[in-house]
Amino acid sequence: MFLRKRNNLELNRPVIKLEAGPIDLILEILAIVSLLCFLGFTLYSMTRLPETIPTHFNSGGEPDTYGSKNSLWMLPVVALVIYSILTLVGKIPEKFNYPVRITQANARVQYTLRSRFLRYLKLAMVLMFFFISYKTVMIALGNTRGLGMWFLPVFLGIILIPIILYLILARRAR
Predict the structure, then answer these.
(1) How much is the pTM?
(2) Is 158 helix (H, G, I), strand (E, B) or coil?
(3) Are 129 and 94 in contact (CB under 8 A)?
(4) Within a domain: residue 50?
(5) φ, ψ for residue 63 (rounded to 5)?
(6) Which of 55, 98, 116, 159 could form a disulfide with 67 if both were Cys (CB 3.0 to 4.6 A apart)?
(7) Is residue 79 one of the residues assigned to a domain?
(8) Taking a C-beta distance cutoff of 8 angstroms, is the pair 136, 147 a contact?
């Protein structure tokens, strides 16, 4: 009833093997290195933390819930899960939703744009969770008081601006 029937063009999208360009490799390497540093930082921090740490922040970046220091592992685990899902989705560009109709003529450009966007998103998400983890540790150790009032607008911009840019570039490359 609520499901839309797919037409033949959507089911028969070209399957193309994309070659990663220099920008793609840089984004991928930065994301992997950031993820490894994140895991190392979390492991190192566990020995220095008190038993209770901030586990949630309000919209102003102030801690408003506290819990066990083991909850710090949630952030790198979530970052790893998001990284893995985006990597898997990146392997099947012909199954992705696009803002334009995919044809043989535009498939390579559209798939490349989407692939690069996903790589950027992986890096941004890992760095965002790493930053939250770092600030959580600094708050727990008494070195700072919160994430800061600019946290939410800055990180929303880091995610939303590339989405808007991707949509603009995808429409131009019809």
Answers:
(1) 0.87
(2) helix
(3) no
(4) yes
(5) -65, 135
(6) 55
(7) yes
(8) no
**Does residue 84 lie within any of the structural domains?**
yes
Written as six digits, the tokens of 48 are 């220095």
Q: Environment class of residue 129 by beta-carbon count within 10 Å: exposed (0-12), middle (13-18) or buried (19+)?
A: buried
CB 57 within 8 A of CB 149: no
pLDDT digits (tens, 9 = 90+) for 33-73: 999 999 999 999 999 999 999 999 998 889 999 999 999 99
Tokens of 146: 């919160």
| Owning domain of residue 29 | 21-172
Number of domain units in the chain: 1
Residue type, 9: L
The Cα–Cα gap between 89 and 95 comes to 8
Q: In 69-150, which residue ranges form alpha helices assigned H by DSSP? A: 74-90, 107-140
**32 within a domain of the structure (yes/no):** yes
Pair 100, 5: CB distance under 8 Å: no
Q: In the block, which residue shows the tokens 């790893």?
A: 80
